[in-house]
Amino acid sequence: MKNTRASVRYAKSLLTLSIEKNVLDIVKADIDMICKSFDNSREISNLYLSPIIPINHKLEITNKIFKGKVNENTLILLLNLISRKRDNLIESILKKFNELYNIHKNIEESLITSTYSLDDKTLVVVKDFAEKITKKKISLVNTVDENIIGGFNLKIGDKMIDCTVSNKLNELRKKLINN
User: Fold this and answer.
1) Strands of 5-132, DSSP E
2) Closest CA relative to residue 141, chosen from 179, 171, 168, 107
3) What domains can be seen in the chain, in order of their start residue?
């Protein structure tokens, strides 16, 4: 990622300011909404990466898109980044902010991959299990991979718990071959 030092500094500043002004959760919701906007519209993302589009147009478009929809601190950050020609860092700053927010709130992001979308009751059970293991709050995302025969993969931080049928079959095969 380009200029990660600068991204970390901006993200830390936004986090610190949000904590001081007691609007951390509001700013987090803003960051999530902006990230979703970037994911859903490549045009918005390209707007900030393009050196061809004049700064005043970027400022105007940003005001039209986000003014009144995001907290004042969030909007000021976006406008300052554009004014200082650091708008190419916006996406990396948003990602760094989310990482710092999770550290601050003691949240671990987790991913469960299964053959089908899991119901809420099952997700709660898995989330509780993961929270017991990590002693952290868990943010759990369910993804579907139809290539899995059965069971699930649970990724918590950098750890992977493989509870798939294919993994169990491979373990059984290795035991049979070794014995």
Assistant:
1) 107-114
2) 107
3) 4-103 (1.10.520.20), 107-178 (3.40.30)
For the segment 100-135, what is each residue's pLDDT rounded down to a tens digit?
A: 999 999 999 899 999 889 999 999 999 999 999 888
Instruction: Name the pTM for this structure.
Output: 0.78
User: Would you say residue 137 has pLDDT above 50?
Assistant: yes
Report which DSSP code applies to 117.
P
Contacts of 83 (CB under 8 A, 6+ apart): 55, 59
Q: Which residues contact 64 (CB under 8 A, 6 or more apart)?
A: none
Write down the residue that tokens 């760094």 correspond to: 96
> Per-residue b/e over 33-69, b at no fewer than 16 CB within 10 Å?
ebbeebeeeeebeebbeeeeeeeeebeebbeebbeee
Report d(CA 59, CA 82) in Å as an integer. 7
